[in-house]
Amino acid sequence: MTLTVDTTRTWVGPTAPERLVLLRAAKSIAIVGASENQARASFFVSTYLLSSSPYDVYFINPRAKEILGHPVYPSLDALPVVPDVVDVFRRHDDLPSVLDEVLALRDAKGGSTSPSVLWLQLGSWHEDVARRAEAAGLSVVMDRCVKIEHARFHGGLHLAGFDTGVISSRRQIRA
Question: What residues does the CoA-binding domain cover (predicted)?
Answer without folding.
Answer: 22-124
